[in-house]
Amino acid sequence: MNNKETKHSLNRRQFLNIAGTSAAALSVSSRFAFAGNFSADRKVRIGIVGGRFGLGFYFHEHPNCIVEAVSDLRADRRNALMKTYKCSKSYESLDKLLQDPKVEAVFLATPAPDHANHVLASLKAGKHVLCAVPAAMTLDECAKLKEAVKKSGLTYMMAETSTFMQTTISVRKLYQEGAFGALFSAAAEYNHPGLEVLYFEDGKPTWRHGLPPMLYPTHCTAFLISVTGERLTSVSGVGWGDDSPVLKGNPYKNPFWNETAFFQTNKNTPFRVEVNWRGALRNVERGEWRGEKMSFFMPQSEPGESTVVRMDSKEGLDHGGFRVAKNVVETYKQPLWWETDMLPAPLRHNSGHGGSHTFITHEFIDALVNNRQPLVNIHEALAYTAPGIVAHQSALKDGEYLKIPSFD
């Protein structure tokens, strides 16, 4: 390990302690492990399905992985997958790939409305599954996924990037160390203005046409759940739309461009989430954690620097001349966890979505090699996903306060 790595090093045992803060929330698995054996001889043979998002990962670099086959409905995307992963075998469909006896696991980087059905088909074929977000689009699909994973005995993981961003790893560490004291509120936002450019392709609507923002909530919900292990138990949701003709005829019957949800957790923590597709907004995925002793604010835009606010025992005057408790505001120096031995050497480089893609790659493969539950297993995936489904239902009912079912 070089000096730079030593400075920011967080070994696998330390990360087990850091990420294990959520372990008390569930007894169903030994979660948040990141405790693999990089020298293991086992090779996982994986199939990559989906030639867009599926191009951005590093299974071909992992010492315990072989990309056995790739698949996409389009020949040009299959060719791109073969080139990226240095793989000579491709299939025209997921169904055909699932018939390959050499493929033992699949990464489903397919359209969101297909995720549940694709996961169910893959589990039925006896394959372990890593799936893009969200896990499902309805509560019924959530229940079917939970039952199918339990019945199969196979490994399921959801590829949520916010969980593995460099900043989120740091916040988990701070939370475990007790730096925040008691968290009294949190917030998250995912702004993707201009999303309508993806609504149509070659004159035909895509799966994104009119997608309700809260049916894509996991980039936000992960910021709280993956840090504290809390569960979102109730919600009031509000939507904003402008009767735009662009939204007319969408398959979701969704009238909203933007949605805001006000959640409460099982620890009575208020948690505000915004998912916005249109407006004068900075494109960002960010979280805020506010505590009695310290608060942490991710930057308002990417790239940017996070801010830490700490309590001070001294008093001062506010802008109106009133006496108030002072605080200390400082820029947080973000460690580059991808440079450390949290990853196998070939994966110690930057990657997409805040350095998360190499971590997602490793977490799934290492979970299979070491026969352990991955960080975002089926229970976590549904805890990230289901609250958004209920939040959208609430928004359609003018903010009616609704309970969120548990899938633990």
From TrEMBL:
Listed PROSITE patterns:
TAT
Q: Does the keyword Lipoprotein apply?
A: no
Which UniProt keyword terms apply here?
Answer: Oxidoreductase
Gfo/Idh/MocA-like oxidoreductase N-terminal domain sequence ranges: 44-158
Keyword field contains ATP-binding: no
The name under which this protein is listed is Gfo/Idh/MocA family protein
Its taxonomic path starts at:
Bacteria, Pseudomonadati, Bacteroidota, Cytophagia, Cytophagales
